[in-house]
Amino acid sequence: MSSDADTTTTTTTIVIGDDHPLVQAALRDALGKAMPEAAVIECLDLDAVMAAVAARPDGVDLVLLDLNMPGTHGFAGLFLMLAHHPTVPVAILSALQDADTIRRALAYGASGYIPKSLSMAAMADAIRAILAGDVWAPPLSALDTPEADEAEAARRFASLSPQQLRILTMIVDGKLNKQIAGDLNVSEQTVKVHVSSILRKLNVVSRTQAAVVAGRLAVDGDGLRP
């Protein structure tokens, strides 16, 4: 006869706090492939994150928290999470990747700092490292100078055509090519051509990274809007 210990399955519970649908979907897919045993709870604002953790005080293994989303700005959400749930690891998930912000996050108690510009595979590796008890952050010496990085991103952004800008706003909103084609009354193949051109002009390799570039150019973290 098998014991209860033989049949018990350990589930890793991860709460994602991010208000960008594309980031949520990409992380969910990446975690599903890298950690199929993980239970992923998606939250679009800080209140939802707090409620999700409070409902599982002993069952949340990691919170991934965006620095800027409804209910929080900057490090306020991190401080609030650590004050209410000091034993739950919290890692920052952000489009910001300057060395000063990363150092401050770790000094303030974050268990890791994951830039959204990482590939999904690299994000999954970082999450696994944090779950194993490590404090993970990108090598600070490898980060670009923020001012130069922003100027280059702005130059690439300015190279997009008006139609490509409209499509980029829809990518940020998490819409698929078929939905974009319907909204713009063009063929899906036309949308695919535009998306490929957008990725090339922004020097990125995925829709998620394109959305991150757009978010970095937004004002006050409100996101890109037409």
Automatic annotation (TrEMBL):
UniProt keyword terms in alphabetical order: DNA-binding, Phosphoprotein
Name of the featured protein: DNA-binding response regulator
Chain positions with 4-aspartylphosphate modification: D66
PANTHER family: HTH-TYPE TRANSCRIPTIONAL REGULATOR YHJB-RELATED
Highest taxon above the source species: Bacteria
Gene Ontology terms for molecular function: DNA binding
GO biological process, one term: phosphorelay signal transduction system
Residue span, HTH luxR-type domain: 153-218
Domain Response regulatory positions: 13-131
Organism for this UniProt entry: Azospirillum cavernae
InterPro entries hit by this protein: CheY-like_superfamily (IPR011006), EvgA-like (IPR051015), NreC/VraR/RcsB-like_REC (IPR058245), Sig_transdc_resp-reg_C-effctor (IPR016032), Sig_transdc_resp-reg_receiver (IPR001789), Tscrpt_reg_LuxR_C (IPR000792)
